[in-house]
Design brief:
By secondary structure, the chain is an all-alpha fold. It is built from 9 helices and no strands. Residues 34-53 bind DNA.
Length: 199
C-alpha cells in the first residue's frame, strides 16, 4: 500500500515538474531556462529534479511530449473533432506565442538525430505517430472527396511535418513570418480542384 502511495506521489510530482517547466521555458526561452531554475520552481535540487527524468535531455523530451498532449486536447476541445488538419492549423497558430518552446523543439530535434541521444526515441516515435495519423486523416478525406485523390497520403503527411518544422526554424530567424498562414496555404493545396463551371 505504501509503495502505491509513493508511486502516485512520484507521478504527481513529475506532472508538477512538467507543467512548471512548460511555463518557465515558454516564458524564459530554452536557452535561459536552466535545470537549476526549473528545479527551484518546484522546490527541488537539480539532482532531485533529474531523479524523475534521468537526464536533462529526457526532461526536455518529456516537456515536449506534455506540450503535444496539451495541444491535442486543446484542439479537440476547440474543434469538437479529431480532425488532424484543424488541430494542426491551430497548433501552428499558437506556437508564435511560445517562442521558448519552439527553440526547445528545434534544438532538441536536431540534437536527437543522433541515435544515441536520450530524446532520439521520442522524436522517432513522434514522427511515426504524426505520419500515421495524418496519412490516415488524408485517406479518410480522399474517400469523402474533400482531399485530392492523386496525392500520396504518406508523402503528404511527411511534407506537412517537414514544412511545419522548417517554418519554425525560419520563424525563429524572422518572427514576422506567419506560420499559420503558410501552413493553411499548404493544406489548401491538398483540397480537390473546384468543379468546372457549366459553360
Amino acid at each position: 500500500m505504501a509503495r502505491r502511495g509513493s508511486y502516485a506521489k512520484g507521478v504527481a510530482k513529475r506532472e508538477e515538474i512538467l507543467t512548471s517547466a512548460l511555463e518557465v521555458i515558454a516564458r524564459e526561452g530554452y536557452g535561459r531556462a536552466s535545470v537549476r531554475e526549473l528545479a527551484e520552481a518546484v522546490g527541488l535540487s537539480q539532482a532531485g529534479l533529474l531523479h524523475y527524468f534521468g537526464t536533462k535531455e529526457e526532461l526536455f523530451a518529456a516537456v515536449l511530449r506534455k506540450r503535444d498532449e496539451a495541444d491535442l486536447a486543446r484542439s479537440e476541445d476547440e474543434t469538437g473533432t479529431r480532425s488532424v488538419f484543424e488541430g494542426f492549423r491551430q497548433t501552428i497558430g499558437r506556437n508564435a506565442d511560445v517562442p521558448g518552446l519552439i527553440q526547445l523543439y528545434v534544438r532538441l530535434s536536431a540534437e536527437a538525430t543522433d541515435a544515441a541521444h536520450p530524446a532520439h526515441a521520442f522524436f522517432t516515435e513522434r514522427t511515426r505517430a504524426f505520419r500515421e495519423t495524418v496519412a490516415g486523416d488524408i485517406r479518410r478525406m480522399q474517400a469523402e472527396g474533400t482531399a485530392r485523390a492523386d496525392v500520396d497520403a504518406e508523402q503528404a503527411a511527411m511534407l506537412l511535418l517537414a514544412a511545419a518544422d522548417g517554418l519554425q526554424v525560419q520563424w525563429l530567424t524572422d518572427p514576422t513570418i506567419d506560420m499559420a498562414e503558410h501552413v493553411a496555404t499548404l493544406l489548401r493545396l491538398l483540397e480537390p480542384p473546384a468543379a468546372p463551371a457549366d459553360a
